[in-house]
Amino acid sequence: MPELAILGGKPARTKPFGSSAIIDHDEWNYLKKVLERREISRFMGSPTKDIDSLLVMPSLEAENYEKGYFSFLGGRMVRKFEADFAGKFSVKYAISVNSATSGLSVALGAAGIGPGDEVITTCMSFNATAASILLFNSIPVFVDVSTKNFCMDPEKVAKAITPKTKAILVVHLLGNPADMDAILKIARKNNLVVVEDCAQAPGVKYKGRNVGTIGDLGVFSFQETKNIMTGEGGMIITNDKELAKRSRLIRNHGESIPDKTWDEEDLVNLVGMNFRMTELTAALGIAQLKKLDSHNRMRINNAAILTRGLKGLPGITLPELVPGAVPHIFAMLYNEEATGVERSKILASLRAEGIPVGSGYLRTMYENPIFAKRIAYGKDKCPWSCHLYGAERKYQQGDCPVAEGLLRKRFIWFYHFHKPNGASDMKDVIAAFRKVFGNLEVLKKKKVNAEIGYKW
Ligand SMILES: Cc1ncc(COP(=O)(O)O)c(C=O)c1O
């Protein structure tokens, strides 16, 4: 067995993995068009005479509205990207935003979720999922995950319902669809809004339906590491006219539109934000959206190569491809007891071999000090101390043992199985894993400098 790189041997791979920012002539052409037109944003955040019809205009119609002018709905590229997205996902409305984080807040705000309301979400996701709940002063309630798909466990959701629960924010984590039948059943029974966080799941299907179209609103991310990317950016989708209208208002200085004829109820959560997407970002998005299916196919193919090649490694459980899933992260489970070697040593050894791997999120979201100490807005525990809430909500270690166990001891995550990385790159990954796992006896005895977290 060749000597491990961490102990001075030659690494299995020295070549960096290819970036997920796949750019070809299509992106260049759309970007060029934006620069030639000198229309870099074209959003306008003030009322016009046709604002009432604009606010509810389906995205496919809005694409051809008032070509070339400033608009409350944005410039030509923004409206084309939204129309293309709405077409691809067969929904009436697609509302672009500058990130999925903004999109999640907009979605909850549009649904009228606000101070005193509880939103049930998974405890294991990127922190933006939980932070988005705080924007309109609502209270996140975290539930544990299922080991089947690493998404929220519906049984835990049912148990977390209180009279204050108003919404479920479900995350399709790692490209696995969450158990939407069970979640929708709970939501219907309790009259709850369902927002789907699809940041890691564009094109993922649940029982043949696109995730993001099953709940009331779906939110996607185009941040650089996602399946398709625009650097930063996000999209909200919905078939509901009222939710679309309110999403468009919150994205674009909403407070400037209503006049005194609007009901008080309509003004809820319409505090003006600027979450708009630029024409440059939308231009990238138009070109990227055309690549979504082929990007997803590559992830599925590479994941299959990894699954075949890594079979039988001691202490490793490989991810099972759930029907409809498009793996966003190749998430393996490691069992220290089976090998006698700490996970941190395995991670450090793989990194030294040239394979950037991670241990998953550093902690559950509720273990972040902002939640653990309940200090978000100011120092006086807002929004938890809001008189409209009037309940006690604490977060502490041990709340969600399944997720804590996965993150602290079990996950090994690998990201770079996306385009342009192909079969020969996956061969290197497999070779590096086999080398490290073939040296477990050596690793057991040696001290290595090991860190958790992720190394790109
Ligand atoms: C599950 C999940 N939700 C939300 C986000 C936030 O996305 P964005 O970076 O576009 O704000 C991410 C990004 O990593 C994510 O993975």
Could you please describe the fold and organization of this structure?
This protein is α/β, with parallel strands linked by helices. It folds into 2 domains: 135 residues, Aspartate Aminotransferase, domain 1; 266 residues, Aspartate Aminotransferase, domain 2 (3-Layer(aba) Sandwich), CATH 3.40.640.10. 36% of the residues lie in helices and 12% in strands. The chain is globular. Bound molecules: pyridoxal-5'-phosphate. The site of pyridoxal-5'-phosphate has 14 residues, from α5 and α6.
CATH topology of the largest domain: Aspartate Aminotransferase, domain 2
Bound molecules: pyridoxal-5'-phosphate
Largest sheet: 7 strands, mixed
- The first-to-last residue Cα distance is 27 Å
Spatial order of strands in the largest sheet: 1-9-8-5-4-2-3
* Share of residues in strands: 5-15%
Q: Please tell me the overall pLDDT.
A: 96
- Overall outline: globular
Care to count the β-strands? 13
Number of domains: 2
CATH architecture of the largest domain: 3-Layer(aba) Sandwich
Helix and strand content put the structural class at alpha/beta
Helix count from the secondary structure assignment: 18
Percent of residues in helical segments? 25-40%
CATH class of the largest domain: Alpha Beta
